[in-house]
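RECORD TYPE: inverse folding
INPUT: structure tokens
STRUCTURE:
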């Protein structure tokens, strides 16, 4: 287990295979320079930050080896170490540090860095390869793989299918950090103290660059911050008062924090580096550690004994390191003169190679960590090349630099410039002249504008989760839990016995839940994460198990959708329903409905083909756990089906005791505490993450606390404090070591001691008071508003210090920071928000900040006529920042006095813009959560009742809220009345209340609807096979104008003729009816084939029909009903399809009798066969075919005989009989339609996509995403401009209207009953729908503008 944990840590960037510490000035040479690992295609994988004096990894490993202790992993969320947060991007530093080689001889080596096969990480790699092979249907799989999945799940992209099945480690690389939503322009200068540089940075800050680029990013739903050298010597962050850690930080510590902040930004945002330098690289830092061999060589070469003594005074041997090294002793008493003398000594005695390895500046490290280590950052990097000569005294020293230092500086500057000229694009190099800097800022603004657009476009293209039939927010919700699980599983102490208990349960025959309980911080979360990560492989190794596994994994309160019983049941039910049936659940948003739906799904025979495992961590953390305990306990106490497993964790407490009364004793397992040796091992491992060596007196002072600490959380806090005590020894006032065994409160005390309450109390209070967390961009803005200038840049330092106790989770596309568990949040609340008056001030500040964002967003939305809400995909993407405001505002309102919030509560619940935007960005479940926070007197009347009922439809598509309110007959009062009168977005509005009819919901009263192209009458013919009648409905009025009853047999199809006549297929006979009188005019001779009664019109004078035996086609006169001509195809050839062009000129039939199958084309005017189209080794699926109205083209689905590849589309030019186009979509086609006027072919695919192909260019015009399952019916309007798509099999109950001119999803309507027939009007503005159980048609009118 220890080895496996270590491997997982390496994969996540949480292991210790780092070549060197991010703060280590002593860079490795030769073989150590060759070790390099990439994350993705061109970025170096990041390592957790290290708080300490820095060394390379090999030294750390040697320390552990020397102490003969195994290095365990750390527990996460409840018990996570620093690493659990860092893989998500918290203040991490670059792994496998290969520092910037500035010698000109090594320039080519920097350019040609390649990822080693052994060290590179493949995106989406997964330790459970057997489980993934099963899901992919691999031949090596021991199960049937994905073949038992519903069609819609089987057709999903592999990564998304793995996410849906709960495979930890496969999908978590996609959409987790959502870097596309964050942009950081990182402006760093080599010499921020130079007057010219300071003036240039001031010009950048004061110009309109920030406002212009921010406006661009905001319009695309991204946050943007510009950081202009926040860590220079004159910056506020580096010039604080002298009472705290932040002010006492030396240049080395500032450098570590700066690099940590840069690496955190690179993982959590799209960084755009802006480098400002010309003839200097800034101050060269002393190396923190030097290998013993190099150090002794340097001493031997020292000509002066005084210099040797000085060096030996400040560098002490560390024999525990391997190889042994000498470390710089940290002390605030080192003067500038001493630093300069040491620097000159090393420059003199070091060779060029050693100088490049050990002596460097902060600017060089920033350039190396960003531009040189990532091709992506190099592509977008901007270099402002200063041409003015800086002052020689650039170091801030009391004396000017010596000629030795100047020569070294010039050499390094030339090398860095040469490297940057090689890596950067020429257009991104800006020459800086003397003041004024308007030309520079103008060019910088234009360059940033193009780079920002490029970055945002790339982020959208890489967004895998948005390219599927399932909701991105739903997939992101599952993915967040999988990503967190992967981090937690890689940060675990060894729990062999507990893990074996879980394994026996998951692979055994017990039919009751297993509840693991223990004290806070005892390791429950990590144990469950380890189990979730391995359960797929456990099943694969079980020879008796042949079922595919689906894991439903949730960590309570990790995300907004896992914060309450209702929200978590909503997401769980949706996941289970998709895994078992392929359909979205349609139950109202109530506990009882979710309970009954889950019972039905888990008892469905389709669920018996899967082993579904529910893994839920911290169920007692649910906000409303007590109020719904009886409901949950009744569900859990029922004997589980044999294919269902439920694994839960809880704390000790009343909730646990209640469950004990419902379940047998064998359903409970208590997680044991750590032994003293395990606690010491964990302490050592955690301490090595903070400082690469543990000081003996700290171990002695903390031994008692370690021996009494039996929980991973408390051990981790102790190690964090010990690491800080070692690093800042003698530099701060007071002690940060714990003075009691109650460790958790000591965390707060240490934070106050290190940072100073006045500086960071507000930031911690803001973080603690947030509902779901806070992003860096928001914290930056809040600090600027509420902190003085000297304090508002300290957030990166605070985040750097608290990184072990923070977690990052994506909410609505933005990465938010929050406390990693409820225990820490409670502790911080009791410290920084315990005073009621102070808490009110904080919540008011948060409310005012987010309310201002909402007011600005609302004004912008209204000015655009709410166009941002027209498309669900664009709303989620472009309104990320708006969602943050909508999520936070109700929470802070609920925590303030009603007297000061009443007006805003009323504003919220009377504003349809608020409601629709909230539904678009957060979803209906979060709206209901906000409603629960609202005071009774401010709640809209009837709101909960109707929104609960409409939740499934609104959750599918929020734009139909007005349609559902009208269709369900909701009371038109308050906010409902405003929404129905002014829907704000286009929607399909029912003409009347869709009250249930007297018929059974299973009855199909109307089986088909045909649009009759009869001039201005705008009629549709509705056929009822059960009533033997044809009814004429007016599209414009939605009323039935006439009923033709008593038709012979069952009317199945109708074709309109001139003079208000029509041909009706009644059973197996064709009859002509007068639509004015309803009388039968003529019965055509001959019987149709029973299974394929196919016919078409040859003008208004003849009918073309397939014969009874399917061996020929009859041309029948509509004057007397006689057969005029017979088109024969030969003996033993059977036809299975029949298409006639609208102009009646061409007939196309499919021949299935011989391989390869043929498409037979007749000229009806010449009455002869003109083409026999076929493709060798292929067959035509002729039931999926379509012909243009003018008979120019025919499109048909084709399949290759000798492979299992998906079918594809072929288009033949019927004027020449040649193959015109061949389109492969990567998934099977299930429906085809063709539009001559719009020159396009529309195909519906099995993976729920709808593709629109251009007949002229052959390209795919649009890929239409929105349906949750494949649809088998495509109805075009007369011009081919609008498309109505729906599914007769009811896999996706919704009807969608598309605009084929721009590829936009116009509107959606989800009825209560199954759709049995539907059609769109000739102008595409009205839809008539027949529903199961209804004898009438429902008129849906497209509403573009507010109703009168």
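DESIGNED SEQUENCE:
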């Amino acid at each position: 287990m220890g080895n496996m944990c270590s491997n997982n840590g390496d994969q996540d960037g949480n292991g210790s295979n780092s070549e060197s510490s991010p703060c280590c000035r002593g860079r490795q040479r030769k073989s150590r320079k060759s070790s390099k690992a990439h994350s993705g295609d061109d970025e170096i994988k990041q390592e957790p930050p290290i708080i300490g004096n820095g060394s390379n990894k090999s030294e750390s490993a040697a320390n552990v080896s020397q102490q003969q202790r195994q290095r365990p992993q750390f527990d996460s969320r409840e018990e996570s170490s620093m690493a659990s947060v860092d893989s998500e991007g918290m203040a991490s530093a670059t792994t496998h540090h290969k520092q910037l080689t500035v010698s000109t001889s090594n320039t080519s080596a920097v350019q040609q860095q390649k990822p080693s096969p052994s060290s590179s990480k493949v995106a989406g790699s997964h330790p459970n390869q057997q489980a993934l092979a099963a899901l992919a249907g691999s031949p090596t799989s021991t199960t049937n793989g994905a073949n038992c999945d519903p069609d819609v799940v089987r057709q999903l992209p592999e990564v998304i299918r793995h996410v849906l099945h709960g495979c930890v480690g496969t999908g978590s690389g996609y959409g987790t950090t959502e870097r596309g939503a964050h942009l950081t322009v990182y402006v760093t200068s080599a010499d921020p103290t130079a007057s010219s540089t300071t003036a240039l940075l001031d010009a950048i800050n004061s110009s309109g660059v920030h406002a212009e680029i921010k406006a661009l990013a905001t319009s695309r739903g991204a946050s943007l911050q510009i950081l202009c050298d926040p860590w220079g010597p004159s910056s506020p962050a580096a010039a604080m008062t002298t009472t705290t850690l932040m002010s006492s930080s030396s240049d080395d510590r500032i450098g570590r924090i700066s690099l940590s902040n840069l690496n955190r930004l690179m993982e959590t945002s799209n960084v755009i580096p802006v480098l400002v330098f010309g003839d200097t690289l800034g101050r060269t830092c002393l190396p923190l550690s030097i290998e013993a061999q190099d150090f002794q060589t340097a001493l031997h070469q020292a000509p002066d004994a005084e210099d040797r003594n000085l060096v030996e005074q400040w560098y002490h041997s560390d024999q525990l390191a391997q190889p042994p090294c000498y470390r710089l002793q940290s002390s605030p008493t080192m003067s500038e003169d001493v630093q300069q003398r040491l620097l000159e000594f090393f420059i003199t005695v070091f060779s060029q190679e050693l100088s490049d390895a050990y002596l460097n500046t902060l600017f060089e490290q920033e350039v190396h960590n960003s531009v040189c280590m990532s091709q992506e950052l190099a592509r977008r990097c901007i270099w402002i090349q200063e041409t003015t000569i800086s002052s020689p005294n650039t170091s801030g020293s009391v004396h000017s630099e010596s000629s030795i230092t100047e020569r070294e500086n010039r050499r390094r500057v030339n090398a860095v410039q040469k490297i940057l000229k090689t890596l950067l694009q020429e257009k991104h190099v800006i020459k800086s002249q003397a003041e004024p800097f308007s030309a520079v800022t103008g060019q910088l603004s234009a360059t940033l504008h193009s780079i920002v657009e490029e970055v945002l476009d790339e982020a959208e293209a890489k967004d895998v989760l948005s390219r599927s039939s399932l909701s991105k927010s739903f997939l992101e919700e599952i993915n967040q839990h999988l990503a967190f699980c992967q981090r937690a599983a890689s940060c675990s102490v060894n729990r062999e016995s507990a893990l074996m208990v879980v394994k026996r349960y998951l692979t055994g025959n017990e039919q009751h839940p297993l509840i693991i309980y223990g004290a806070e911080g005892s390791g429950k979360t990590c144990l469950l994460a380890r189990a979730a990560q391995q359960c797929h492989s456990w099943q694969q190794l079980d020879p008796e198990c042949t079922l595919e596994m689906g894991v439903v994994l949730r960590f309570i309160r990790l995300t907004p959708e896992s914060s309450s019983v209702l929200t978590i049941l909503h997401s769980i039910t949706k996941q289970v329903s998709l895994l078992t049936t392929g359909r979205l659940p349609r139950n109202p948003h109530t506990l009882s409905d979710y309970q009954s739906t889950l019972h039905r799904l888990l008892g469905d025979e389709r669920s018996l083909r899967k082993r579904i495992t529910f893994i839920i961590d911290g169920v007692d953390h649910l906000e409303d756990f007590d109020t719904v305990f009886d409901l949950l306990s009744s569900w859990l106490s029922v004997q589980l089906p044999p294919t269902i497993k439920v694994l839960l964790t809880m704390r000790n407490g009343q909730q646990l005791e209640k469950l004990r009364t419902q379940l047998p004793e064998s359903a409970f397992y208590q997680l044991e505490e750590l032994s003293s040796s395990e606690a010491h091992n964990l302490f050592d491992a955690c301490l090595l993450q903070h400082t690469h060596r543990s000081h003996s007196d700290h171990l002695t002072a903390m031994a008692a606390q370690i021996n009494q600490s039996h929980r991973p959380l408390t051990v981790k806090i102790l190690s964090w404090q010990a690491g800080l005590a070692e690093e800042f020894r003698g530099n701060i006032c007071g002690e940060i070591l714990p003075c009691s065994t109650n460790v958790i409160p000591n965390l707060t005390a240490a934070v106050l001691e290190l940072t100073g309450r006045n500086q960071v109390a507000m930031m911690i209070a803001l973080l603690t008071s947030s509902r779901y967390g806070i992003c860096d961009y928001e914290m930056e803005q809040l600090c600027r508003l509420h902190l003085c200038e000297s304090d508002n840049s300290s957030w990166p330092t605070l985040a750097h210090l608290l990184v072990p106790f923070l977690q990052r989770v994506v909410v609505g596309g933005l990465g938010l920071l929050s406390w990693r568990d409820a225990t820490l949040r409670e502790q911080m609340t009791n410290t920084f928000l315990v005073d009621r008056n102070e808490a009110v001030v904080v919540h008011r500040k948060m409310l005012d900040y987010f309310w201002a964002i909402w007011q600005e967003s609302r004004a912008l939305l209204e000015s655009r006529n709410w166009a941002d809400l027209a498309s669900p995909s664009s709303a989620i993407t472009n309104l990320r920042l708006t969602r943050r405001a909508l999520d936070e505002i109700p929470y802070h309102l609920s925590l303030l006095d009603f007297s000061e919030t009443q007006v805003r509560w009323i504003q919220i619940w009377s504003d349809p813009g608020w409601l629709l935007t909230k539904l678009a960005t957060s979803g209906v479940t979060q709206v209901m959560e906000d409603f629960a926070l609202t005071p009774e007197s401010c709640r809209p009347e009837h709101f909960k009742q109707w929104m609960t009922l409409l939740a499934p439809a609104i959750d599918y598509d929020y734009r139909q809220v007005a349609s559902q309110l009208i269709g369900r007959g909701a009371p038109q009062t308050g906010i409902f009345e405003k929404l129905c009168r002014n829907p704000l977005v286009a929607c399909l509005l029912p003409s009347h209340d869709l009250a249930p009819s007297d018929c059974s919901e299973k009855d199909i009263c109307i089986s088909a609807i045909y649009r009759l192209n009869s001039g201005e009458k705008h009629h549709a013919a509705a056929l009822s096979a059960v009533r033997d009648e044809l009814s004429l409905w007016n599209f414009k009025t939605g009323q039935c104008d006439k009923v033709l009853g008593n038709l012979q047999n069952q009317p199945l199809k109708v074709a309109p003729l001139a003079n208000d006549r029509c041909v009706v297929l009644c059973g197996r006979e064709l009859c002509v009816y007068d639509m004015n009188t309803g009388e039968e005019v003529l019965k055509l001779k001959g019987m149709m084939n029973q299974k394929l009664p196919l016919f078409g019109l040859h003008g208004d004078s003849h009918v073309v029909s397939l014969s009874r035996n399917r061996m020929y086609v009859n041309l029948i006169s509509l004057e007397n009903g006689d057969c005029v001509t017979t088109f024969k195809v030969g003996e033993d050839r059977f036809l299975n399809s029949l298409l006639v062009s609208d102009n009646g000129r061409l007939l196309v039939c499919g021949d299935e009798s011989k391989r390869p199958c043929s498409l037979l084309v007749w000229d009806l005017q010449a009455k002869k066969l003109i083409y026999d189209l076929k493709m060798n080794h292929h067959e035509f699926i002729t039931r999926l075919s379509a012909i243009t109205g003018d008979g120019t083209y025919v499109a048909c689905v084709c399949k290759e005989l000798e492979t299992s590849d998906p079918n594809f589309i072929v288009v033949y030019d019927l004027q020449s009989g040649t193959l015109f186009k061949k389109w492969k979509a990567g998934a099977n086609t299930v429906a085809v339609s063709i539009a001559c006027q719009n020159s396009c072919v529309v195909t519906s695919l099995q993976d729920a996509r709808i593709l629109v192909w251009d007949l002229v260019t052959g390209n795919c015009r649009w890929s239409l995403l929105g349906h949750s399952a494949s649809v088998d019916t495509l109805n075009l309007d007369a011009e081919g401009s609008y498309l109505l798509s729906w599914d007769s099999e009811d896999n996706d109950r919704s009807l969608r209207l598309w605009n084929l001119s721009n590829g936009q999803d116009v509107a959606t309507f989800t009825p209560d009953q199954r759709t049995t027939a539907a059609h769109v009007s000739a102008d595409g503005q009205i839809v008539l729908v027949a529903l199961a159980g209804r004898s009438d048609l429902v008129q849906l009118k497209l509403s573009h503008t507010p109703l009168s």
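NOTES: The chain has a mean pLDDT of 78.
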